[in-house]
Amino acid sequence: MTETQVSASGCHVLLAEDSSVTQDLVKLILTQNGHRVDIFDDGPSALDALLTDTYDVALLDFHLPGMSGLDVVTSFLEEKGAGPRPKFVAITGDVKGLLKDQANCELFDLVVPKPLDIDVISEVVDTAATTAAATRVAPPTASGPMIRGPTPAAASPALTAASSAASSAIVQLGFSLLRWPDRERTKVFSVSDYDAVMVESPDDLDGLWALRGAHLLPVIDLSGKLGPSADLDASALGIGYAAKIRDLIDRFGERRAQLHPDPVRSDDMGDKLLGRMHVSGGAVIPRRDGRQRGLVAYNTVLSPDVVTREVRKLADGGFLDLSFFDRLHVCGRCASARHNVREECPGCGSADLTEESYLHHFRCAYQGPESDFRKGDDLVCPKCRRALTHFGRDYDRPGTMVRCRSCATTTSEPKVAFVCADCDTRADGDTVPTHDIVEARLSDQAKGYLKAGESFLGLAQKTLRFADLPLDLVIALNRAARGFNEDGTPFALSYVSYGNEAEIQGQAGARSFAEARRIFLESLQQALHDEVQIARGAIHDFVLMPGRTPQALEASLRTARDVANRAIRFDLGAEFHLVGPEDIAS
Amino acid sequence: MTELVNEALDYLLAQSFASSLALFWFVAIFEVPRYTLAFLVTAVMPKRRYPQFATPPKVSVIIAGHSEADTIERCVLAMREQSHPPDEIVVVSDGSTDRMPEVLGDLLRRGLIDKAHSTELRAGKSAGTNMAARWTTGDILINIDCDCSFDRHAIRNIIRPFADPDIVAVSGNILVRNTVASLVATFQAIEYLVTISLGKRAADQLGQVTCVSGAFGAFRRDAYEAAGGLDAGGGEDLDLTIRLRRAGGQIRFAEDAICYTDTPATLNAFIKQRFRWERDAVRLRYRKHADMMNPFSRRFRWTELAHEIEFLFFNVIAAVMLPFYVLWLFATYGGFALTILLSAQLGLAVLDLSVFLLAAHVTPGAAGFRLLPFVLGFSVFNGYFMRFIRVSAYLQEWIFRSSYADSYVPDKVHSVRG
Predict the structure, then answer these.
(1) A273-298 pLDDT, tens per residue?
(2) Helix (H, G, I), strand (E, B) or coil at A517
């Protein structure tokens, strides 16, 4: 135990979990973050500890030997009654199964899906730590459950009868739906708890995007106001709606599963948009929409201004392939694209223009506006005073011009002006700024990023994540972590990146590169002897050396690399990035 | 050839005054007086001086062009470069089939021109120019061709004579830009220098300027409107000048208001152009304005008779008499006629050269001395070839009234105009 590291805000955490791998990892991470962790293998011992000691958070595997997590909580509440209680977090591989029972939802504060995402656990405990102080001062109130199940809440009064009928019809399909606007304020949200978002009124949809992961859910529109921005318009349900909804939810779920946790966890709006593009089919597709100031809406509920901005940024980074959709004229003052486009007088700017013919009198070569000739019903040439009687023989009309009724200016070239419908600003047709709207598709780089996470973009500037590690390494690391937790035995981990990967693959092919990499690792293993464990990952390879500090490993790695490099034909550009126990939890 | 020239020279020098007059009467009558007159007037009479403007007049430039998308911008920019920039520029695109209307819109938006009108059907140069004039607000209208280029002081110099209130129109000086394009172009460069730069200068001194060139001319607006502007096509610049003169206005030539134009560079194009000009000239003088020659007409004026006689004598009769003179020479002297013609030409060459030198001297912008080697050739070209063209054109117009079919004027206008 590293009691010295427990800070004032640290939590006392109980973990009831029968997998030793999970036990050690969770303990390593949480203690590094300054929490105290007690670990129990089975239900009864966990219940004993809960009753005798005080915990801030209890992480309970749902399926425990002896008694289930649910039984532990139930028994605890029976014993303690309404007294102070820890935050109960259920760990389960079957979220839906757990949530089916209304009672469970009230017992647990949060459900975390398996396989365990160590970052989610971290966050939950950290959140509990910040609220723990407050809880200690004031007596705990019966705060509502932090997670909303698919309990059909009473339809909001704003809903029309039709949409409330649709709403209940959809709810009856048995999916877990996030109702939006979320009047009950979901505080901790996990995307895996839900199948879809059901929008009842199109307010605060940007708030939906603020919930981590919510943007990856299909949007079912009950209001009928979102148009193609929603993934399904359910304002009027037709025949076969159930199949449609099931299909939609399946499709999104499948595509969500393809995503690497990095872009899912990220709070960056660009990452969110990429994720959303992936689950909804790989593109943001603009369309004209007069209700928007920008005159454009996209196939997502995020506000178009944000989409436009993020698309530009992502495209600069090479994440999107763009194709031109339309060029809009935007107001220089308020950036609105809603304009009245009009012809106006170049003299006075009035739009009160009227058309008039030119008349050409052949005989005397007088040419001018018709009004020069007009004498009542007759046309009389102002130059030679002859009456024009025969079109085509005496005269013709070689064209039309425009006359301003305000200032009598005439021209054949009226000015084109744009008047902003939102702020009344007027701009000349040739000076009004334009803005190109594009349709964007995920580039290969973006697809790689969504699949492989940030490691795809180069690990040098990113921190290591457990999700990236191969399984055999996790087990070895777990052992090393236990050693570190028990008696402070150091360990060193290095991951290996190959700077010349793309180059070699381009020149010699992927198989040559893979072969070279394999030989390099074997040579490295031989050069470093048996004291290290080498694991092969998808993008990086790993070298773990228990019992040594990273500094010690670094020197031997360098000499080993030179040996290994001699064994292969290519220069792989291998780089080592060293990590110690302290770095892993950061 | 040298032998023939020597013989001709000997023959020329051997003649007494009376015998040479008997032989060279054609030259003596049709060539010498005209040259001498021009020479004397220019050399002897003092240069005109004009008073200063009390208030500078408002100057409007009018341009009517048909499918001039490529040249209009440069032309407008040249106007904006003037030492006395015009107060307004009005452009009419006369039924252009190219991008000219769009180019005008662009110029308008950039503020380079003040008014632009575009028609879809071609109406002809006259109607286009008239309409451009209709939209102007200036006191002086300057009509320019947009394929010409202009000296920086062209506008300043062409409006100067208007300080005299009797002046109603001023012709600009037109020089040839493509002097080295071909031999025909070079000859025309010499011709323009002699007939326009020097010839109109002399005519100006005598108050006999009869054509304000359509490529570059300025008009007092009142007079232009009173005359009704240009009449329907073909030689409309000559026609308007004659009408302005007959209304009592004075016309001037500003030799220092210089504009450059491209002349037809091929013989074919040159002949076509001259046929058109000569046909128009006789049509206007002897059909439309025939009463100028009639002392009993109400509109007869003695001052107009002078330039009518000049034209009749030196252009029409000289051209018509030339074949008779040549025939007469051959009939009388047989093969020796060639020698006589050659010696006449030698004498003429001396005259031509001195006139050319004077013209080049008084027109500094023309770089005339580069043309010097071509003067002898020009002398033959002008003395024989151009007269041949004139006679043919006169005959054609007299017999076939061909000027009524020029493609320069739209057909719809031909069928009705006077």
Answers:
(1) 999 999 998 899 999 998 888 999 99
(2) helix
| Pairing verdict, β A434-442 and A366-369 | unpaired
Strand, helix or coil for residue B340: helix
Q: Are B356 and B187 in contact (CB under 8 A)?
A: no
Span between the terminal Cα atoms of chain B, in Å = 52
The answer, yes or no, to whether residue B235 has pLDDT greater than 50, is: yes
Q: Which residues of B touch A360 (CB under 8 A)?
A: 119, 121, 123, 127
A540 closest CA partner among A569, A570, A563, A517: A517
Q: Which of the 8 DSSP states describes residue B288?
A: I
Q: How many CA atoms lie within 13 A of B235 on its CB side?
A: 25
Q: Chain B interface, mutation test: which of A413, A431, A432, most B Cβ atoms within 10 Å?
A: A413
Q: Give the HSE-up count for residue B363: Cα atoms under 13 Å, Cβ half-sphere.
A: 34
Cβ distance A362 to B115 less than 8 Å, yes or no, reads: no
Encoded amino acid at B97, one letter: T
Please report, rounded to a whole number, the percentage of residues in chain A having pLDDT higher than 90: 16
Closest Cα partner for A563 from A574, A548, A552?
A574
CB A195 within 8 A of CB A176: yes
For residue B332, give Cα distances in angstroms to B196, B325, B329, B347.
37, 10, 5, 21
Which amino acid is it at B41?
Answer: V
Q: Which of A334, A391, A316, A402 is nearest to A360 (CA)?
A: A391
Residue A508 corresponds to which amino acid? A
Peptide bond into A115 cis (omega under 30): yes
Q: What angle do CA A173, A179, A182 make, to 5 degrees?
A: 165
HSE value, Cβ hemisphere, 13 Å, CA-based, for B242: 26
Residue B355 vs residues A70, A275, B39, B346: alpha-carbon distances, Å: 124, 90, 7, 14
Chain A residue numbers with beta carbons less than 8 Å from the beta carbon of B413 are: 362-363, 365
| Distance of alpha carbon B142 from alpha carbon B64, whole angstroms | 11
Residues 133-162 of chain B whose Cβ lies under 8 A from any Cβ of chain A = 134-135
Retrieve residue A302's tokens. Answer: 């995020």
Tokens of A464: 């290591």
User: What are the φ and ψ backbone dihedral angles of B217, each rounded to 5 degrees?
Assistant: -145, 150
* Residue A110: strand pairing partners: A89
- ipTM greater than 0.95, yes or no? no
Gap between the Cα atoms of A538 and A464, Å rounded: 14
The percent of chain B in helix, strand and coil, each rounded to the nearest 5, is 60, 10, 30
Residues of chain A neighbouring B117 (CB-CB closer than 8 A): 358, 401, 410-412
- Interchain pair A364, B228: CB under 8 A: yes
CA distance B128 to A365: 8
* Distance between CA atoms of residues B79 and B154, nearest Å: 9
Question: Rounded to an integer, what distance in angstroms lies between the CA atom of residue A430 and that of residue B8?
Answer: 73
Backbone angles phi, psi at B199, to 5 degrees: -60, -45
Measured in angstroms, the CA of A333 and the nearest CA of chain B are apart by 22
Q: What is the mean pLDDT of residues B98-112?
A: 90
> Distance between CA B230 and CA B280 in Å, rounded?
14
Rounded Cα distance between A30 and A156, Å, is: 41
Could you give the CA distance from residue A525 to residue B370 in angstroms, rounded to a whole number?
92
DSSP B372: G
pTM exceeding the 0.80 threshold for the entire prediction: no
- List beta partners, residue B88: B60
B392, two tokens? 């043919």
The structure tokens listed for A113 are 């899906």
CB contact under 8 A, A412 and B117: yes
CB contact under 8 A, B232 and A367: no
CA distance A338 to A340: 7
- Percent of chain A whose pLDDT exceeds 70: 83
Element (H, E) at A435: strand A434-442
